[in-house]
Design goal:
This is BTB domain-containing protein. InterPro entries: BTB/POZ_dom, SHKBP1/KCTD3, SKP1/BTB/POZ_sf, T1-type_BTB, WD40/YVTN_repeat-like_dom_sf, WD40_repeat_dom_sf. Residues 136-179 are annotated as: Disordered. It holds the Pfam family BTB_2. By secondary structure, the chain is α+β, with helices and mostly antiparallel strands. A 4-stranded mixed β-sheet has the order 2-1-4-3. A 4-stranded antiparallel β-sheet has the order 5-38-37-36. Helix 3 (68-80) crosses helix 4 and helix 4 runs antiparallel to helix 5 (103-113). The protein is elongated.
């Protein structure tokens, strides 16, 4: 049993004072019992009363294993009842105050933190969708009686197919892949069991968000909600699904606006490899279109126009056409990525081929039970095509659309291919090749001003300026390298479909400025929004309800009021079921104003960027923890911000893994 603190130089009678010697982190402090114990129910009252075991050094002083520099400020407060930060961060001092249980000091430091923070969010916060009520009723299990299920005899074979991808070159820099693989193997079983538990204990956790024009679809574990954006940028709940049969794995939405009403198709894929499709109008009237299956795992679900498309990387494509109401599933090559442009669906395959499906011609091939799939291009080296970005130039009076396609491969190569409208029917030609990544390219983006690629080495980004003449890419040889930076994220080893919906980007329309969204850890309360072209920080987003951000989506809302501009919004789903809406257009405007650049131009003003970099260097140089290669810092979280986010969320070595993207990632 612990004994009360005693010393030969004082009396132990009630109410008496005596000297207490403390060894804090190797430094000796001498103070009185009354000084340490005037705050009731603290660490010190428990220690001096004997309710807490103590350890003494060779001199008999009580040993406390804390930082002596911070304890000096704590002890000074106990002596004078005045707070002197002494150059310390408020958060650091508050952390120690919480450890010692000093309630009055905690309240003062909390007020200091709230001087610059508010529960109403920053200037970029522009609304919130409240958490829905849990559905009471359940969807009927229609699998056994649905006539829309495929009766193909090769269902089991399809599920057991592998993607056929060749073995990718392993990146061995600093043994990063080996470290990641070790951590993932060690924690995979724990993560899977935790994921299954969270599905039941966190039924309102937002897992996926998708948007199209004026429709927002939010997915939870066992139900989905559909919202309509009104003229005044408020959000009306149109439909909440009953409790689904199994776990929701994918969602998609397509909205068509007529003169009087908007109509939308909403597709939901389930863990049992089925897809439910609903038609919902602006009045909330719902019509179920059917329940479908490809007899294979569903890896992507989306719309091309009004046609619903489902892909399986094992090599299956399923398409539902709204005009004919037909569902068609067909085997193709194992699929590693895809992109859409107009009415075209482009598939990147594991064997290095790039296949094309013209959705306008889709109904013409339904009678012979076959999709019109044609090979558009084949990688010269036969490498797996791991990412795609298709760009259609505007039509002119002289010619039609140029087709420009950027694609990345499993060997880290980024290729740019072109097809002139006069050469329709012929394969595109290779225009440019960049052999600049040491890991598989998981995302590429080709827009009006930039080519951006992201590889699997912890989301390493490279970008180039793209020069155009009369809207078409310039045929002069060579382009200018622009930036190289990382978008580090720490992902859990489970919920692979959720990762697909919450990757860093790039996000945004191809004719506008694209952004990256960096979430350092799962369930973080802070996001870093950065320019996709240069990596510079646009703003940070902090959850206004102190609820973890579990999902996010960037969407450009078309202004419905007369004279309003197209605005880019960030939708953040939270662990409590709400969805917070942030105005990235205002953030971009203020970013350009601060940097002195023209918002109409997507290139960053070089002098402003240089001044910003010098400012960052001077700020980091003043920090004792700034042991960092400053040339690699480009606007992401500073080392101190990274440590703060990890510490604030109690992340330890046994929970997250340093996630490298899969070699053949779906977009």
């Amino acid at each position: 049993m612990a004994q009360p603190c005693s010393s030969t130089s004082f009396s132990n009678e009630p109410g008496s004072d005596y000297i207490v010697n403390l060894n804090v982190g190797g430094r000796i402090f001498a103070t009185s019992c009354n000084t340490l114990s005037w705050i009731p129910d603290s660490f010190f009252t428990s220690l001096l009363s004997g309710r807490m075991n103590s350890v003494r050094d060779v001199s008999g002083a009580i040993f406390i294993d804390r930082d002596p520099d911070v304890f000096r400020v704590i002890l000074n407060y106990l002596r004078t009842k005045q707070v002197d930060l002494g150059g310390l961060k408020v958060s650091t001092l508050k952390h120690e105050a919480l450890f010692f249980g000093l309630t009055p000091l905690i309240r003062r430091l909390t007020l200091c933190e709230e001087l610059s923070s508010t529960s109403c969010g920053s200037v970029y916060f522009c609304g919130m969708i409240p958490p829905p009520d849990m559905p009471v009723e359940a969807l009927p299990n229609e699998k056994s009686r649905s006539p829309m299920y495929s009766n193909s005899s090769d269902s089991n074979d399809s599920k057991n197919k592998t993607n056929g991808s060749p073995r990718h070159r392993v990146h061995s820099k600093k043994q990063s892949s080996d470290m990641s693989r070790y951590i993932k193997n060690e924690l995979s079983e724990l993560a899977k069991s935790k994921s299954l538990l969270d599905r039941d204990t966190e039924p309102l956790k937002v897992r996926m968000i998708r948007a199209h024009i004026c429709s927002i679809v939010v997915a939870y574990s066992y139900f989905v909600c559909v919202y309509r954006v009104t003229e005044w940028n408020t959000y009306v709940l149109l439909w909440k699904s009953p409790r689904t049969r199994t776990y929701v794995t994918h969602i998609a939405v397509n909205t068509k606006i007529s003169a009087t009403v908007a109509e939308r198709f909403v597709a939901v894929a389930f863990q049992d490899d089925t897809i439910g499709l609903w038609h919902i109008d602006d009045e909330g009237k719902t019509e179920k279109k059917g329940l479908f299956s490809m007899n294979a795992s569903i890896d992507n679900l989306f719309f091309v126009g009004t046609q619903m498309v489902a892909l399986s990387k094992s090599g299956k494509v399923g398409i539902w056409h709204s005009a004919t109401q037909n569902w068609q599933a067909q085997d193709v090559q194992p699929i590693s990525c895809y992109d859409t442009a107009g009415s075209s669906l482009i598939l990147g395959c594991a064997n290095g081929s790039m296949n094309h499906i013209d959705m306008q011609k889709f109904p013409l091939r339904m009678k012979d039970n076959d999709l019109l799939v044609t090979e558009l291009f084949r990688d010269p080296n036969g490498d797996t095509i791991t990412s795609l970005s298709v760009f259609l130039t505007p039509k002119t009076s002289a010619c039609g659309n140029w087709i420009e396609i950027a694609y990345g491969t499993s060997n880290g190569v980024v290729n740019l291919i072109l097809q002139h409208p006069e050469t329709a029917g012929h394969q595109p030609v290779l225009f440019q090749s960049y052999n600049i990544h040491n890991s598989p390219v998981v995302r590429v983006s080709l827009n009006t001003a930039h080519l951006i690629s992201v590889c699997s080495e912890y989301n390493h980004v490279r970008s180039w300026n793209v020069t155009r003449f009369r809207g078409m890419i310039n045929t002069q040889p060579g382009t200018v390298p622009l930036a190289s930076f990382k978008v580090l994220t720490l992902d859990s080893t489970d919920e692979t479909t959720d990762k697909q919906y919450n990757h860093p980007g790039p996000y945004g329309d191809q004719d506008s400025e694209q952004v990256l969204v960096q979430r350092l850890i799962p369930n973080a309360q802070k996001l870093f929004v950065r320019l996709a072209s240069t990596g510079e920080r646009i703003c940070t987003v902090d959850s206004v309800e102190d609820s973890p951000i579990t999902a996010f989506c960037v969407h450009e809302l078309d202004g419905q009021k007369l004279g309003s501009r197209l605005r880019k919004h960030l939708f953040c789903g939270n662990g409590n079921g709400s969805v917070q809406v942030w105005d990235l257009t205002s953030a971009l405007d203020q970013f350009h104003l601060k940097n002195g650049s023209n918002p109409g131009h997507q290139q960053v003003n070089p002098p402003a960027a240089a001044n910003h970099a010098e400012l960052i260097k001077s700020q980091l140089a003043q920090s004792p923890r700034s042991l960092i290669n400053l040339s690699n810092y480009s606007g992401g979280p500073t080392p101190q911000e990274l440590l703060d986010v990890i510490d604030d969320n109690d992340i330890c070595c046994s929970t997250p893994s340093l996630s490298r993207c899969p070699s053949a990632a779906f977009q």
